[in-house]
Amino acid sequence: MTTVVDGLGLGRGTGEMAVERALAELRAGRGVRLEANGTAVLVIGAEAFDAVTAAALATAGVRDARLVLPAPRLLKLGAPRAQAGSVSLPTLDAERVATLALRAEARVDAPVAPANGLDHAALELLGLALVLPAAVVCVVPGAAVTGLLAVDVADVMAYRATQVARLAIVGRAPVPLEGAPETEFVVFRGGEGLRDQVAIVVGRPDLSAPVAVRLHSACLTGDLFGSLKCDCGDQLRDSVRRMADGEGGILLYLDQEGRGNGISNKMRAYALQAQGYDTYDADAALGFDLDQRRFDFAAEMLRQLGVRAVRVFTNNPQKIAALKASGLDVVSDQRVLGRPTAENVRYLASKRDRAGHYIDFDALAARAPD
Ligand SMILES: Nc1nc2c(ncn2[C@@H]2O[C@H](COP(=O)(O)OP(=O)(O)OP(=O)(O)O)[C@@H](O)[C@H]2O)c(=O)[nH]1
Ligand SMILES: [Zn+2]
């Protein structure tokens, strides 16, 4: 297959390479050509769609331009739909796109058409690229636009699953931690959009028994800076300490900032929270479902480390279900309580009430201050 050699991606499928390149293009604010069954459209993220881009596309003679939005964003705009949908852009107006895609007070101003396969793939690409889930999609006449990267819808929709299969350890070393001197960091590549994922092996867990495990999604603000808006930093340090003081364990530090939405979208959501939205409504206003995270690759990391049974430290029923679904034996009697603060109590209550997290406020209140 000469096409595989083409990109020197020996051993990688051409479809996967195209998807990975498309993610880089979209993150850089450029468009890509999305193809399915002989149909091709240009896709560009709404957040990159400025007046200059709009004018260039109009000059190129593009037609049938639409703004594709996910169902939660359509609901916010006053047009509830079970699935994603699109509104027509008869003139390429960057200001209108920004309003419909992002502004908190916006209302839908045109009929909404159901999303087709190309539209769904466009949103999947933007999600993988961690940009705002709103896509400008249009038809490009013949040779009017050159140099666009082409990517196939089927390859886009298959991408996440193929990444799990490619997960591999790329580096490991001992890193003694305060309070956990015998600790090893093991770095995996793959799983979600070629990001690096880290397993932190604390002590020497007995792999023949259920291993203490925490799946910890990255939270820059909480883990590193001690943000008062969430409980992540406490959960992180408490989990490592419990593993070190007990029989050892494995903490997976997962590159899933903002429940998988990415740090930029998390800050957009925090801006809405500052206006009074709760954690889930803020995400929904931007077009996100309750939670974007998948944990299938986390289970695969554990498997590659020789773990068959886990005692998982979490309050999140989705994590428990995902580990079980992946075939691991799961004991789930260990909760991870952060410190309640005036700033995070609403966040914790929302997680309990809207996402079914096992958060016991009496137990939190009873926690002795450190
Ligand atoms: N979108 C969004 N993400 C947030 C917000 N606050 C925290 N996060 C993210 O939420 C995730 C929390 O991760 P975890 O602590 O692993 O997860 P959890 O789902 O609460 O589950 P457990 O802690 O295991 O009970 C991290 O990715 C944070 O960056 C928020 O207000 N909005
Ligand atoms: Zn946090």
Automatic annotation (TrEMBL):
The EC number(s) attached to this protein equal 3.5.4.25
Cofactor(s), by name: Zn(2+)
By its UniProt entry, which InterPro entries does this protein fall under? GTP_cyclohydro_II, RibA, RibA-like_sf
Provide the transmembrane region boundaries: none
Organism of provenance: Xanthobacter oligotrophicus
Which major enzyme category is it?
hydrolase
Q: Upper lineage ranks?
A: Bacteria, Pseudomonadati, Pseudomonadota, Alphaproteobacteria, Hyphomicrobiales
Full protein name = GTP cyclohydrolase-2
Role summary = Catalyzes the conversion of GTP to 2,5-diamino-6-ribosylamino-4(3H)-pyrimidinone 5'-phosphate (DARP), formate and pyrophosphate.
Location of the active site: 291 (proton acceptor), 293 (nucleophile)
On whether Transmembrane is a keyword of this UniProt record, the answer is no
Catalysis performed (reactions) = GTP + 4 H2O = 2,5-diamino-6-hydroxy-4-(5-phosphoribosylamino)-pyrimidine + formate + 2 phosphate + 3 H(+)
The gene name on file is ribA
| Free-text remark on how the cofactor is bound | Binds 1 zinc ion per subunit.
- The UniProt record gives the binding positions of Zn(2+) as 219, 230, 232
